[in-house]
Amino acid sequence: MLRASPDGEAMSGSRILGLLLLAPAFVFVVLFFLAPVVLTAVFALTNMSTATGITGGAYQVTQSAMRELGERHGEQALADALARVRYTVDPAGIDAATAEGASTALVSELDRKLAGESFDSRRELERAIKALDNRPRGTRALKSLSALFERSIVNTRFATEEEFFGAVAGLGIELNATQRAALLATTYTGWTWTSENFSRMFSLPDTKRTFLNTIIYVFATLIVFNTGFALVLSIVTHYMPDRPAGIFRAIWLLPRISPPVLYVLLWKWLAWDTGFLSRILVPLGFESRNWMLDNPTNAWVFIVLINGFVGASMGMLIFSAAIKSIPVSLFYASEVDGANRWQQVRYVILPQLRWPILFITCYQSLSLLTSFEYILLATEGGPGGATKVWALAAYLTALNNYAGNLEYGYGAALALVLVVVGVILSLAYLRLFDFKSLVAPPPIEQ
Amino acid sequence: MRILLEKFTKSFGSLTVIDEMDLEIDDGEMVALLGPSGCGKSTTLFAICGIHRVSGGRILFGDRDVSSVPSQQRNVGVVFQSYALYPHLTVAQNIGFPLMIRKESNADIARKVDEIAELVHIGNLLERRPAQLSGGQQQRVALARALVRKPDVLLLDEPLANLDAKLRLEMRSEIRRIQRETGITAVLVTHDQVEAMSMCDRIAIMNEGRIVQIAEPMEMYDNPASDFVAGFLGNPPIAFVDGVVTNGRFATASGAMTVSLPFNAGERERKIRLGIRPEFFRPGGTQPVAGKITFVEAQGRETLYDVALEDGQILRSIQTATNAATVGEKVNWGIDVERILMFDEDGARL
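ok -> structure tokens follow
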């Protein structure tokens, strides 16, 4: 008789339980991390926009489509032919004439003599009708009858290829294979697969500017505030008595815990032309203006300040904790070894902060790279795109712009660049930190 | 260099830890500050090296008043209990740190580091980092760093507390050797009476912020000024028996133990306390006392016995490990009465 050992049962039981517990995490990872990245990559390879929609499209001969057919495919003659209005005596027209109240004799004569005939102009059709025995009396009746046979496919939406080509054939136009392909490409109103987003990205001068803006934004904020100012704060508070140091740190935490919209609104009040700064500066002889949006330099100063005041607190906390973990005897030792405050900072504190500084730099560079909320709230990328960073550009292109045509495809392509840069940086940082050695058990003393 | 503390006072907030302490340490002398934790010995050391400011009184190095000189300018070498080596620097950089701070030339630093490393026997470890060293090696590096710039004073704060027993023994003699070779004035802070006795020229025993007695180790062992000193020095510790003396005859309250003392306090009854060291209570001692063995601890070369008197007071005896007395056995061992230490009611030596 076979019997599973209690150990084995416990093992498989705990394994199943483990998988069960992991399942929600797995689902969330797939739903909220993997799927967006995959979809971004997919969208980036399309020309989706508000105009194309994200579902399928139809075939439609529009003015711009015909211009494109002539200019890009060299089919000017075909374009002219498709755009031309013609007059065809077809069953639909004859039925319409009956409904409009034409005499039975006229209808049957039209059917007999002119059915299937096509005319290039209205005058030709009317001349043919006038030649009939039962022709309508009076010009008005003639005009209203001929209007019923006016045929054009311009601006008509055809749901399928077959319908579209049927209609084209109905115009008496014969198409060869190249013409068919060109026609499909130019008249399709839905989205298509394309790599144009990327060639467009690399050719637009706007891209270079956005790229440089992003570099300025990330590095200025990172160096001046998230690392630099955070270091200054943590070192200064280290040398302060405990209570004032605590209060001082708490104050610098306030921007982090205040609601972003209100926080930025306060900055706007500070900078508006009737705001706080103007109130103080105008009496001193300065001109009243919006100090934030007055010029690109000002805008950058404000952007870096707004983000920096928020970002400095995290570095401050991490660095303060790291300084606190330095044994106090090291400070004593360096003191009796003759080191003054500055030498203590340089030779004792900073070497011990090497990893925290590197960590904050890496972590914050990644989060700054993708963050644009404070810029959106403060300047919306202005003045004139001077503070438009990559993530904001992607957002504005794909999800919110003045023109109203949201370019999902192009926006996704912009976002994909961020994803790729982020992944590369993350891998590089993990390597730099030697992830394995970080999670390794610490060596036991002696 | 001579160290002189004059009415040295140290308080933290409203709490006065040390009140008007006087201490003189001669040039080239090594003195131990010995006492239980919280007695103020480390506070004194930190005040001497300038990490703590004095609240009152003066500290002199030679004839120089350093009371208000910051520690950076006192030229003291300190070995901390945790060694306080800079973890990111190599051994050579650690030792050379005080010189680097003084901006001495690299060649000078290298030469001095080599010299001092030779003295403390770590010449082969100079390129390592502290984490790659054993406790004893770290200790030597800390010592070298403290000595490299030829300090006026060497201060050692529980330097052996973090070492295992064997290393402790080795470093005890090493530190003493180095102190003798360099002729430096040194202060050792410790709570371990063996360290204090074996390493130092004199011991200043401290209790509750005061120096209770300062003397050479053997002098202090033989002639403790109080029962506190007697109880602190000696391992296994001295045993105390309380009772009264009349006409040179001592008896405990219950009469469980009576001995004649070479001490005449007159006819009047007087409460006293006897201190009997374990080595002076043994078979063949001059004044027999009856008791029962309650505890036996074999230490190899010697065996330690606890002997309970009838009224429950305990005497200790240490003997070479030949006597095969066992727990529960009744014994009638004797006290070497001329070696008995006598203290009055307040603990002062009679």
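The radius of gyration of chain B is 24 Å.
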